[in-house]
Design goal:
heterodimer, A: alpha+beta, 19 strands, B: alpha/beta, 5-stranded mixed beta sheet, elongated
């Protein structure tokens, strides 16, 4: 219970303001000390004063007993009476002594100084005990009270009487109270002085502190608009004279990492500013409170500069965000909704900013954004930016738009988010498609002679068949049924053959869309071979095929793959032609096409027994407009386009070549997942 | 009725040739490639060989030169894809009798067969290949047989003679059975160029369609006017 109250008291005390704490504790200590001094003083002074007065009373009594002994023996009582009066009324003693009376050995009153009849019983009020030489006792006299001091009067060994001296208690009390009043007055005066001093002291300490507190509050509310001079009053330091006041890039004041790497250099020249020596950091002479104020001022100044720098930086990035040429979105990682977007986004997608914010990110690209969201959904997200090339997004109108997309993790308004930078490449893709188409048309042109020859073959057979029939008809000759059937069948076969060539040609020449599909890699190989086999064979270049059936399909465009294989076999043929030209021997050469699957990859290898590629050529082989062929014979785009198409299918190309022996191009494609 | 060897890598074409030529009453041998063709040629000695030019392995030109090596007087007609004029000229240079464009037309085939018949007949008769006849204001050169590289000297002599006589008009008449090979065409080109330089007016007539194409592609038709028949050419001169 007692403990609780102390705790409560301490709690209440600690709730006081610093000013009150200082004030009350100083006051409390002073009061306690004063009380102790007062008590001590009272005890010492009052008791010694009383004793002294008693001693005086005793001395007076002894003096009467000494001088009065003779008068008692002579029974000269008038002399004794005058003696007692003399003693009692001498000077200031009259205030102190209330009465004196003398008793004989039978305790009969011999004389007394009362101006009224001797109070009864007084003579028996203070008897001297046997063997003692005095007795002091407080006696009530009715209206007043007195200290009665009794001393025996002795003649030799015999006691012949007793002297009683009555000391006035009121007088003694008056003296004591005068003393107490004086002392207490002094103590009160001291307390008042201490009160004032402690009050002033507390105020001196707490006033700057509360000012700092008020400023801190202002700062934390974001109000930095007060003058820094509020804090530095009294010092000659002027904030606006600091060079950093106008140029926050000035390296002087910030020693953070952002400027450390510039090695304190501004615009290439070393800064001569030494901040340690800066007047800014010098502190005024003064006590801790002054130094605290200066430190605080420095801190506020630094914060102000940092704030300004932060604002400048924020403005810079804000303007980059708003004025950058590429659409940028901010997507929350919590629900994958768009939380911010720059004006380019609204231009690209056709949504207004209001429609975009709060919209699901996946709406922009229902298929392509899934992968991105998945990557960020995983715990912690990716450590860096992820790049999604050539993905499909949709405008508000539903029109598709091809984009390259960068997604980077950031913290936006203290939430994990994604910065999505998008780059519209629809036009590039269209140009790309046009280029592929142009290259394809060129390939078609190259093929045309061979194809014409190829189509001519069935036409020839048909023509001859029909000429035969016409001949028989003109000459009215009998046509055996077997012959007729043979001709008819042959004509039909040849028409099919011509139609097949034409459809392969059409498929090759068709402008491919952007849509990918699942392709069995053997299909485009066969399509290309339909067109070129005969033509190549006529040049004594034969094909060896080793196609694996029932492989996983790949995500690609049949039409574009045809272009790839056409380029590869065409190059292989040219390599063989080159070798023949170099060696002058009509060697037995062939192009081998192998397809196979290993785990999740589908491979196709096109090998030739041609001239091979030198290492330096191999480094440049995929560069656009690089060609080893004579001017006018190759655009140098074939392999560049091949590479582009393969890369678009997420595939890769490996080249293995040995000069004079041959070259193998191995294309690796990831197998499509079969579930859908 | 003659024995004809057809070489073509196309089975269908071979079949058709077989039927058609059999219908014309010839005996037909077929070969699917050059090597077999030469073997058969060696073994059966056909009167006429018809070979495709574009074939895998041994091509038509090689077959032609091999056959000419075995028997220089043999008649070989090459079959070319439509418009393969370079190959046609190459073949003519190798002394091919004629060439047939694919798809093969019946009249072309008939003409080629007739030409080859005529040549065989002509070869037996051993007539003069080229004759020079002087007419009023006109030198007429009649070509009846085979113009080959061997005819080079003859052609030059005849042209020199024609020009020496200060006849400014030269009429060249190709008889129906006449044939001309690449080397002869070269010579012809040279002499015509020379005559043209001297201010001669050259008229050519009696050319078959194929040869007309060849002369066109050689650029001869630019230096000479070509007429379908002799009558219209003479009319023009008057």
């Amino acid at each position: 219970m007692k403990r609780f109250t102390i705790k409560k008291f301490v709690d209440r005390f600690s709730g006081f303001s610093l000013k009150n704490k200082i004030f009350f504790s100083t006051l409390g200590v002073i009061l306690i000390i004063s009380a102790i001094i007062a008590l001590l003083a009272r005890w010492i002074l009052v008791s010694s004063l009383t004793k002294e007065l008693e001693l005086r009373g005793v001395a007076i009594a002894y003096s009467i007993a000494e001088r009065g002994a003779g008068y008692i023996l002579d029974r000269d009582y008038p002399q004794l009476l005058s003696l007692t009066f003399e003693e009692a009324k001498l000077r200031e003693r009259q205030h102190l002594i209330t009465y004196i009376y003398v008793l004989d050995k039978e305790n009969q009153v011999l004389c007394h100084t009362f101006t009224r009849p001797f109070p009864g019983d007084l003579d028996k009020a203070n008897p001297i005990p046997e063997g003692s030489d005095k007795s002091v006792r407080l006696i009530n006299l009715g209206k007043t009270s007195a200290y009665d001091i009794a001393v025996p009067i002795k003649e030799g060994l015999y006691r012949i009487g007793t002297v009683h001296v009555g000391l006035n208690k009121i007088h003694i009390d008056q003296l004591v109270s005068t003393l107490r009043f004086t002392f207490l007055g002094f103590i009160s005066f001291v307390v008042v002085i201490i009160f004032v001093i402690s009050h002033r002291l507390a105020e001196y300490i707490t006033k700057p502190v509360s000012k700092l507190t008020r400023l801190s509050d202002e700062l934390s509310r974001g109000n930095f608009n007060f003058s820094i001079d509020v804090l530095s009053s009294g010092s000659e330091w002027n904030a606006s004279s600091c060079p950093a006041y106008y140029n926050t890039d000035f390296p002087c004041w910030h020693f953070d990492l952002s400027s450390n790497n510039t090695d304190n250099e501004v615009g290439g020249r070393e800064s001569l500013q030494q901040c340690q020596d800066c007047h800014f950091y010098s502190k005024r002479q003064g006590d801790e409170v002054v130094q605290l104020a200066d430190s605080f001022r420095n801190m506020v100044w630094s914060i102000k500069l940092y704030r300004r720098r932060l604002r400048e930086s924020e403005e810079k990035y804000k303007s980059l965000f708003d004025s950058g040429p590429d659409p940028i979105l901010v997507v929350s990682c919590a629900d994958f909704k768009i939380i911010d977007a720059n004006p380019r986004v609204t231009e690209l997608y056709g949504y207004s900013l209001k429609e975009l914010i709060g919209e699901k990110f996946i709406k922009l690209g229902p298929e392509s954004n899934k992968e991105c969201i998945k990557a960020f959904e995983e715990y912690g997200g990716p450590s860096g930016c992820i790049y999604y090339p050539k993905i499909l997004h949709y405008k508000k109108s539903g029109k598709p738009v091809y984009v390259n997309m960068h997604a980077c993790p950031i913290t936006y308004r203290s939430e994990p988010s994604i910065i999505v930078a998008v780059n519209d490449i629809t036009e590039i893709i269209e140009k790309d498609a046009q280029l592929v188409q142009a290259a394809k048309m060129k390939s078609l042109g190259e093929m045309s002679a061979g194809v014409a020859h190829e189509v001519n073959q069935p036409l020839n057979a048909i023509k001859m068949g029909s000429e035969y029939l016409a001949l028989m008809a003109e000459q009215n000759r009998d046509l055996p049924a077997a012959q007729l059937e043979k001709v008819a069948r042959e004509v039909s076969n040849q028409v099919d053959r011509a139609a097949e060539i034409i459809s392969a040609l059409r498929a090759f020449g068709r402008k491919s869309g952007f849509k990918t599909e699942k392709v069995d890699i053997n299909a485009p190989v066969r399509s290309v071979l339909t067109l070129v086999t005969r033509q190549f064979e006529l040049q004594n270049v034969n094909f060896e095929l080793d196609l694996t059936e029932n492989m996983s399909r790949i995500i690609a465009q049949d039409n574009r793959l045809q272009q790839v294989f056409f380029n590869l076999v065409n190059n292989a043929r040219d390599a063989i032609a080159e070798k023949r030209e170099n060696t002058g021997i009509d060697s037995e050469d062939f192009i081998k096409i192998t397809t196979y699957q290993r785990a999740d990859n589908v491979y196709i290898r096109v090998s030739d027994t041609g001239a091979g590629i030198t290492d330096e050529v191999r480094d440049k082989i995929f560069e656009p407009f690089f060609s080893t062929k004579e001017v006018g014979y190759g655009m140098g785009l074939g392999l560049a386009i091949t590479y582009g198409i393969v890369r678009d299918c997420k595939g890769s190309i490996e080249i293995d070549s040995q000069q004079g022996v041959g070259t193998s191009f191995t294309l690796v494609f990831p197998a499509a997942k079969e579930e859908s | 009725m003659s024995k004809i060897l057809v070489i073509d890598d196309e089975r269908a074409t071979l079949n058709m040739f077989e039927m058609l030529l059999t219908a014309y009453g010839h005996e037909v041998l077929t070969a699917e490639n050059g090597e077999i063709g030469i073997e058969i040629f060696d073994a059966r000695k056909p009167d006429l060989v018809m070979t495709d030019i574009k074939m895998p392995g041994m091509d038509g030109l090689e077959v032609l030169s091999r056959i000419k090596a075995i028997s220089p007087d043999s008649e070989v007609i090459v079959i070319t894809g439509h418009g393969d004029m370079d190959l046609a000229i190459k073949a003519l240079n190798l002394d091919a009798t004629d060439f047939l464009n694919k798809p093969v037309k019946r009249e072309d085939l008939e003409k080629a067969l007739r030409l080859s018949d005529d040549r065989r007949l002509f070869a037996r008769k051993k007539q003069d290949d080229v004759r020079l006849i002087f007419e009023d204001k006109l030198a007429v050169i009649e070509v009846a047989g085979n113009l080959t590289s061997k005819s080079e000297g003859l052609l030059i002599d005849i042209f020199d003679e024609a020009m020496d006589t200060s006849k400014m008009n030269i009429l060249i008449i190709f008889q129906e059975k006449a044939s001309i090979n690449g080397a002869a065409i070269d010579t012809l080109y040279n002499v015509i160029e020379k005559a043209k330089a001297k201010g001669c007016n050259i008229i050519i007539t009696g050319l078959s369609g194929n040869f007309r194409c060849v002369l066109d592609s050689m650029g001869i038709s630019k230096m000479a006017s070509i007429y379908d028949n002799e009558e219209s050419a003479r009319k023009k001169l008057c």
